[in-house]
Amino acid sequence: MTDSTLAGRDTAALDDPVGQALRGRHAHLARRLGRAATYLPGVATFASVSVGPDAAEWDDLAALLGPGELADMFSCPAVPPPDWEPVFTLEGRQMIWSGTARPGHLPAQAETGVVELGADRVAEMLGLVARTSPGPFWPRTHELGTYLGVQDDGVLVAMAGERLKPPGWTEISAVCTAPEARGRGHAARLVAALVARIVARGERPFLHVAEANTDAIALYERLGFTTRRKVTFRGFRTP
């Protein structure tokens, strides 16, 4: 796929990346009731409702999740009923790969020292997440897509992977490096390797990042990502 084709890719699916993924390539990992949807337990806490949901749709989502559970609405702007307790609000941005700046290495070079992480590495992945806090990651999150890592003497010290998959796009997420392994370019190499794989499939990479994480934003910009829009991540507790 040429850079011009990538640059012209329709971005409308990115307005509702959770809902688009749950209705499409992640349908096998979804739970649904009416127009409400969420991921299976242990995969992700992200939930989706339609544009302008009514009270019945919020009731369906509450029934899917159960009482007192987290409804992670991600970047959805819809406001739940007043008896849904706010849990968190985080300002962030959605960034898309420009399709004009290559990630700095040929694919084979980008993957030097990179290993694929599967179900047999979940305990190590969860341990690294606990140390670095890159964002939500659960025992089955690796089922959302390909996860890659870097090892140091057999110990997992960095990783990144694929998360939401709206039509034509794949999100890069869980980018993290252990404190003792930072400054070695692991995050850049992992993101570059994922970009190369995603583009090779004819898709376009995108990602989300907290607005306060200026170091990460600078890294992604160096790798060819540009800001598409500002977003607010919100979570609520069901009644």
TrEMBL record:
Residues 112-239 form the N-acetyltransferase domain. PROSITE patterns: GNAT. It comes from the Bacteria. Keywords: Acyltransferase, Transferase. Gene3D superfamilies: 3.40.630.30. This is GNAT family N-acetyltransferase. It comes from Streptomyces virens.
